[in-house]
Amino acid sequence: MGRALLIIVIGVAALLSILKANMSSNSSQEVDNSVNFFKKNQARLVANSGIEVYLEKLRRDKDLTGHFEDNSLMGGKYDIDISGPDSALQIVSNSTFYGTTHRSFVLAKRTPVKMPTINSAMYINSTGLNLNLNGNMKIDGNDHNTDGSPGPNPSVPGVGLDSPADSAYFANNIKSKISNDILGQGGAPSIRSIPDTTDWLAITEALIFAADITVPSGTYSSEVTFGTPSEPKITYLNGDVHLSAGFEGDGIMIVNGNLEMDGNSKFRGIILVYKNSSIECNIEGSGGMYGGIILAGTNVNIRSTGNSSFFYSSQALANAQAKLKSSRFEIVDWWE
């Protein structure tokens, strides 16, 4: 009996030892599995977050391309490779987190810039309008190339306003000399009512988001360039801006405030002057605008002296539409 009991005790002890060993082994394996799972998830998170980081860099630097190594993020490292045109942009992210690797691929395309519709050489959208036009001011809705030669497209109104009352006010409050120089659809003075339901705030905010150049308020007495025909830019003038020595540019220029221009200025594309309060567009000296100008605000005051010219140009608008880059992307595919 005693011997049997001893055998049972020894057997139970052995069984408990085996169970303990198995439990210890299982516990160790579970810990290893948990650690590996964490590493894999973290490596994946680093790779995907790296793509997000470089999409933001691409938003700010629209010409960014190439290979970027050894980026640190969340305790790991990642390399990024950016290649392809804006219509089929490929971003590859390779990450490492404590010896565990992960690769993510993204195919994206840059969305086009949403251009404001241009229906006249100068469009005015305002509940309050004041005019003080002097000098030799020409507003021409006949299509022009940017070298001044005739363009291929039909004419648009020289001045477009959003109500018949505003167009009548404009026609009745300009001097005959200037009236004869407002050319375009229907002959001089080419002043027409063009009803418009555009959300100018939304258009402006989208363009500001995509701006290549931001200029703070102030007076700029040296010549400045806001884009070229081969590389037009979206320029944001944030505040009241006085360009006193002339400027040259291509693309879209957004002015959130009052704009004063003097000197021999030339711009090809769209000038959008927007503000919820009043806008004073003061133009002095000789200058040329090819494309279209939009004045949208609660009150618009236009003062002009000198030899200012505003020419509708489908060529300038088409060049801006084709070459400007937005800051927004559409993710076409994402795989890992």
What would you say this structure looks like, in words?
With 336 residues, this protein is of the alpha/beta class. The chain has helices spanning 2-60, 164-172, 176-179, 200-209, 314-323; strands at residues 66-73, 76-83, 89-97, 100-110, 122-133, 138-140, 159-161, 182-183, 191-193, 213-220, 224-226, 233-243, 247-256, 259-261, 265-283, 286-304, 307-312, 329-335. The strands form two sheets. Strands 5, 6, 7, 8, 9, 10, 11, 12, 13, 14, 15, 16 and 17 form a 13-stranded parallel sheet that branches. The chain has a five-stranded antiparallel sheet with strand order 1-2-3-4-18, with helices on one face. It starts with a helix and ends with a strand. The model is unreliable at 1-12 (pLDDT under 50).
